[in-house]
Design a protein that fits this description.
seven-stranded antiparallel β-sheet, single chain, alpha+beta, globular, Chorismate lyase
Length: 196
């Protein structure tokens, strides 16, 4: 039972509940498009698709998307890269019951940003953000580390949001990698240089 508990995250409705440093809260709590924000903080932004295929739904996301534990979903995982450095690990799940009318572009995204698609579609309704501090044993923490080679001791912060289009639900989780903090610093340094 204990091992199973360590693989779950505690999701909170307010960013302060995860005790993230102020610079990380800046990234966690933004209401606009994360893709747009990352593009504004880098010279070159790209989406690296890791995979997109049917998979078991993670235990701590099943209830959030209205599924029973062990249900299968279509899972998409990506790295968002700024100037070729991975700064966000993205994890999206869609119930297998969703059809092409619910999410018409999801199956053909490839290396395109899901965020741009969601924010550009007036039929998409966005839910409230939730925030978590991921243990090293959480599946998304393990996957982010495997994809980037990060050390195990690094604390990772995440946010997630449920989207709805027609009858279809889609849950997006973004795990913020430590390198995202360098983007804030780089922007601050550029601002200082422009003032002098």
């Amino acid at each position: 039972m204990k091992g199973r508990t360590l693989r779950l995250a505690l999701w909170h409705s307010h960013v302060n509940a995860v005790n993230a440093p102020p610079a990380m809260r800046h990234w966690l709590s933004g209401r606009g498009s994360l893709t747009g924000k990352l593009k504004a903080h880098s010279g070159a932004f790209r989406v690296q698709r890791l995979h997109q295929n049917p998979a078991p739904c993670l235990n701590d996301e099943a209830a959030a998307i209205g599924l029973h534990r062990g249900s299968r979903v279509v899972e998409r995982e990506v790295l968002l890269r700024c100037d070729n450095t991975p700064v966000v690990f993205g994890h999206t799940v869609v119930p297998m019951s969703a059809d092409a009318g619910d999410w018409p572009l999801f199956s053909a995204l490839g290396e395109r940003s899901l965020g741009s698609t969601l924010f550009g579609d007036p039929q998409v309704r966005r839910g409230a953000l939730e925030f978590a501090r991921l243990r090293a044993t959480h599946p998304l923490s393990l996957r982010a580390r495997a994809a980037t080679g990060m050390p195990d001791e690094q604390i990772l912060y995440a946010r997630r949001c449920l989207y709805q289009r027609h009858n279809g639900l889609l849950l997006v989780t973004e795990v913020f990698l430590p390198a995202v903090l360098d983007l804030v610093q780089a922007t601050a340094n550029a601002t200082l240089e422009n003032r002098t």
